[in-house]
Amino acid sequence: MSAAPQPSVTVRVPAKVNVQLAVGGRRPDSFHDLANVFFAVALGDEVTATPADDLRITVSGPDADQVPLDGSNLAARAARLLAEHHGLRPDVHLHIAKDIPVAGGMAGGSADGAAALVACDALWGTGTSQDVLLELAAELGSDVPFALLGGVALGLGRGEILRPLPVGGTFHWVFAVADGGLSTPAVFRECDRLRDEAGHGSDTASVPDPQADPELLRALADGDPAALAAALANDLQPAALSLRPALAATLRAGADGGAIGTLVSGSGPTCAFLAKDAESAVSVAEALAASGTCRSVRVTHGPVPGAAVTTGG
Ligand SMILES: C[C@@](CO)(OP(=O)(O)O)[C@H](O)COP(=O)(O)OP(=O)(O)OC[C@H]1O[C@@H](n2ccc(N)nc2=O)[C@H](O)[C@@H]1O
Ligand SMILES: Nc1ncnc2c1ncn2[C@@H]1O[C@H](COP(=O)(O)OP(=O)(O)O)[C@@H](O)[C@H]1O
Question: Whose CA is closest to 44, among 265, 257, 298, 222?
Answer without folding.
Answer: 298
